[in-house]
Amino acid sequence: MPTVDAKPGPFTFDTDSTALVVIDMQRDFLMPGGFGESLGNDVSQLRRTIKPLADLMAAWRAAGLPIIHTREGHLPDLSDCPPAKLNRGAPSMRIGDPGAFGRILIRGEYGHDIVDELQPLPGEEVVDKPGKGAFYATDLSEILEKSGITSLVVTGVTTEVCVHTTVREANDRGYECLVLADCVGSYFPEFQRVGLQMIAAQGGIFGWVAHSPEVIAAIRE
Ligand code: TIU
Asked: What are the backbone angles phi and psi of residue 87, rounded to the nearest 5°?
């Protein structure tokens, strides 16, 4: 079984029961004019994850292992977007408003979809989620159980929001999670650093942290 040098200690995983999860690598978070920028964020902070993630996805596919993509977004009538979400953050544009890439974070719009470099292949699962966590109000649990998946290699954006929420949800459900520092991104360098420390602290309180080249090497062996 592949073993990766990680914090707080080595992470060993069975390739028969491990999926790569790619969280919310959507145009609305990564491109100027999208939701991320409407919240006042510098989207360039997230774009450094694209290249290492593309390399990891290529190696993961070459090894014949499963990839699950997620997208955060809502129905066109916003019936799945509670006021507590819609009204938060004082964005210059709200969820559902017209943006540079269609209505912001609305399913079916160009901006809601995944960036060109990381597009899912036919047959890969794409989980549409209305919340920050990938388990809330989705069929992710069923997808994982059906495939016998017990470990997750977690990537995507943003580190302290949707990645953290998903990893916490997963850990509570019994999944072992390895988060890849170079393949997750935050708009805030401080949150990136501390967000990763929070996962691995206290003996790995809800996961492990490593870097993608080590995972690529481990699955090629
Ligand atoms: N704003 C922010 O950091 N993140 C989100 O709104 N969603 C995700 O993290 N995907």
From this structure: -95, 5
